[in-house]
User: Fold this.
Amino acid sequence: MNVEHRHLHSISYLRFLGRLLFLLLGQIVLSMFFLPLSSLAQGQATILVTVHNEAGQPISQVAAHLERNGADVRVTAANDKGEFVFHGIAAGEYKLKVSKEGFEPLTQSVSLDSTATTTEIEFTMIPKIERVETVEVQASASVETEQTSSAETNLKPREVRSLPYRPATVTDTLPLVPGVVRGSDGEIKIEGTGEQRSALVVNSADVTDPTTGRFGISVPIDSVESISVYKTPFLAEYGHFTSGVVSVETRRGGEKWHFELNDPLPGFRILSWHLRGLREATPRVNFGGPLLKNRLYFFEGFEYALHKTPVRTLTFPYNETKSESENSFSQIDYVISANHFLTGTYHLAPQHINFVNLGFFNQQPVTPNFKASSNVFALADHLAFGGTLLTSTVSVQSFNAKTGAQGTATMVLAPGGDQGNYYLTRQQDASRLEWLEALFHSIPTHSGTHNLKFGTTVTRTDNSGNLAARSVIIQDSAGHLLKRIDFTVGRPFQRTDVESDVYAQDHWTVLPNLAFDFGVRMESQDLSHTLRLAPRVGVAWQPFKKGSTVVRGGYGIYYDRVPLSVFSFGSYPEQIITLYGPTGNIIGGPQHYLNLIETVAGKRFFFVRASTHPGNFAPYSTAWQIEAEHVFSPKVRMRLNYLVNDGGGIPVINPQLVRGKNALVLSGDGQSHYRQLEITAEVTPRKNQKIFLSYVRSHAQGDLNDFSRFLGDFPSPVVQPNQFTALSSDLPNRFLGWGVFPLPWRMQVAPLVEYHTGFSYAPVDAARNYAGEPYSDRFRYPSFFSADARASKDVKINEKYTLRFSLSIINLTNHFNALDVYSNTGDPRYGTFIGNYKPKLGGDFDVLF
Assistant:
């Protein structure tokens, strides 16, 4: 067996290295092909830019990004004279962005026609405390809305950090996006589905957990430059998702060293006017600056988080979940030349949680503990030559997770609340090695400008671990035994997977007011034995001359990678179920349920080719959307959007009879449907002031036995027959409003208001079978409403130090937002809602220097 395993590993490594070599040769051929094109292209222009302050003095080392359709065409930095030049730029529409630490970033639209030779642009950069102005730009006027079919929602860290609940990581900010909610289980839901069906990319590298597909601890918000959330991008460069994409760009160090200390003092727990230890501690520090002037830059964001989260339906001291984590993100940027720079990042995030999912029906002894750590290192090389930008990225990642219990007592499930100890212990280790190549080139033609992008990705992932499970007993409210679930001994597992992707896309600007996106992506995954083709098309049209309105639409096909936990299912402990009658007599069983991974046979989705092999799954979705965006003025922007997303091929688990034997069958025939109508408005009445308002009408349906319920970090021991119905994240109505308002005397207030239909729940009987249609509109929590606010004031101590004092209040109106419900029909209190977080007042302060 050892010889065989070594042989298989050798084959896997050789296959992986072979694909790397093949893709490297492909990139060389592409580069050789496009280099002569860049020199032969006609109608290319030069952009000459100067940057100075209000006194007319040049500003050096200003970072400059020339973008087209959201992608960098050129990246450079200003010299000591405050100048930089972009040569060989093709005709078309561009955005030129300049930024430097201590100054307000500026963005200018640039329009170049086929007769352009040299375009001169002049920027006046103003310190952040002053009003921002730009000097005349000697280029033709540009539209005020982006001509791209894939619109995204952007979150600015500077704004969201001011909100009442002080988001600490990228994941914490996502519920501020229309169509993204934090479910009743605490997990982020995008388009009604969990994290395992969405993608999280940081500087283009995938950072999701290879085992479960979930996000884990994401990058600290202080280390982030921008957050973009795409619900249906029609660009082929995005893959490995069926619901949405969260794209993060991180922050580089500036020309001067900057330090910031946030929330340095802990919060204390005070009960009955007595001090009872710490409630929380969330200090954050970030600093950055030049290690070598004009060459080498460093930035570090670090946070420590200790939270003792109380559950209001339980009594102290047995009502708290304790979580402790560290989150460090380091970045180094090395500028080799004006057209060539390197970026290296390292993300370290260990965490430890005691009493996970604590609640009235799931008290401390029966809750699991969780310990995890992730390490992500990435190195990216950006090289611009002619009209081409080549980006090469290598990412090395490791993920470790351990689930444990409070003891070894038998877990007892009863209508009035569970008892005993959690039934499962689990150890998992995973890793990812990923190499990405992306090449961008713009070609002007008589029929318009083509912005081409080609890319390849090769990824190797590994997963190993083991699970052990103890017996679970189900009782009625009188303590009578109804069901017993025993488990066989699980086997250690080890899985290795290799994925290869290649894509090509073209943003074709046919007319100044009309553009198309065409693209195709091909993905393969070794363990699933599948090859998948994903064509996409989009259009952006500006119907009016002023360009203040853009109509977008598109259609795309998307695929999820299958997480490695799916392929390890056969090694998990198997269930042995015994049923009991009223007198304790056995009325069914013991029945042994095998863990089987199905082979998908027969007719499949048209664009999928697969070998006949267990686990040959290819989760997919087909999505289309239509959107209209209008800019009423520089201060008011509105968007109306309708989205349809239909998924299929999703791995689900279902009890079945297979060839006369009972089995839990992991199949690839799950489905999902999502519909969303969104109305969003952004208002910026004046500088540093913003109002964001959105209303979302949505409906989410799908199979309940999604693999993540049973193969995630905290699997459920009870597997009911699968049903297709509304999902727990189905929210027919949601209104969200938040904003940032500067006040006199260096003060600021940031309100946050949210209303949504109550989450639905699934009633069960005493034996834990569904009672009625789960998650239907009949079974919903009361409507949720919360009005929160945070006010802050800056006190300048001297030229170097500033103190920021803040006061926050949560649930200002004391609205009853139920925390739990008696959902077991075997309990006499069935249907009663309990728990509510009363208004909470808190204070903190930051040190800026």
